[in-house]
Amino acid sequence: MRIVVTGGAGFMGSNLVEYLVNQGHEVVVFDKFTYAANINNLKEVLDKISIRKVDIADKEALMKAFDEVKPERVFHLAAETHVDRSYKYPEVFVRTNVQGTINMLEAARKFDFELIVTSTDEVYGDRWGKPPCDEECKLDPTNPYSASKATADMFINAYFKSYGINVKVVRPSNNYGPRQYPEKLIPRTIFRILNNLPPQIHGTGEQLRDWLYVKDFCEGIVTVAEKGVKGEIYNMPAGNERSVLEVVKTILRIMGKPEDWIEFLPDRPYQDRRYAMKGDKIRSLGWKPKTPFEEGMRKTVKWYLEKGREWWDKQNIEQEIKSAPTHR
Ligand SMILES: NC(=O)c1ccc[n+]([C@@H]2O[C@H](COP(=O)([O-])OP(=O)(O)OC[C@H]3O[C@@H](n4cnc5c(N)ncnc54)[C@H](O)[C@@H]3O)[C@@H](O)[C@H]2O)c1
What's phi and psi for 19, nearest 5 deg? Predict the structure, then answer.
């Protein structure tokens, strides 16, 4: 199949590209190459794929690219993804995550491809003290990033209802694994330890996240593409709920450091304490995550120890490990 992956030079996108190439598909990456992209992420498959530098928020450029490539299936992952940045630059998040997704929907109408969109568990908001969400739950985003993703989901619903386009949505929980940009919790923690700096946590680190190994995400989104129903949304929980503190302690343990070597910083004014979803719907398609948390974390730490330092510029790593810590 000829498949486009938007955001294919980012963390989850590049893992998905590799997964699809290994399945024998012809893959074209559409990516703007923001700070979060990295050509190294695609180096193992470079001779088997094509890459187009496209900004999904630029409708004309996007339409031209689709007209030339004419894919049968599109996995839409391109997005601005860092919650902390979304407080600083909300307009950038609206441009890419909302306008960019509307452009993808317009392209799906015009070129009649199958569109699978990656949303997030964050659209349901904070689930602390509340039951996990099924796909019918009220959307209750609490930060500009999740608000932009929830808005995009509303447009998807509207385009499906109005035009009957062939679209499916997945809502994965927190992904982790190789190639994640060092601004995020797990790589940032690993790089701090590698640089002899204690890991940092805002507040007590009691915030709960559900950690999904990125290879399991790839299997999940492909399952939804192949077996899911048009117009439907599929939550993709991992069943690996761990607090931020537990994640940091796990990394310290794997890297052979004392588990209490942590710098606690004053808490922020607001943090979601828990995201939680039910996954019965995607399980009914035959998918379930395969990677136990400890195993996924060991693989991830090993990858960063072997490849991390040569993957990104030294300045980028240094800048990120000194910036504010995050819980995602
Ligand atoms: N990482 C997670 O834990 C997680 C969890 C749930 C959902 N998601 C969603 O999954 C998707 C992928 O996340 P990720 O962590 O791999 O992101 P990432 O930040 O690692 O990569 C995003 C990619 O999108 C590209 N991009 C950004 N703006 C663009 C634009 N205007 N046009 C074209 N390309 C653009 C970037 O260059 C980058 O390659 C996103 O939609 C995100 O919202 C992520």
Answer: -60, -45
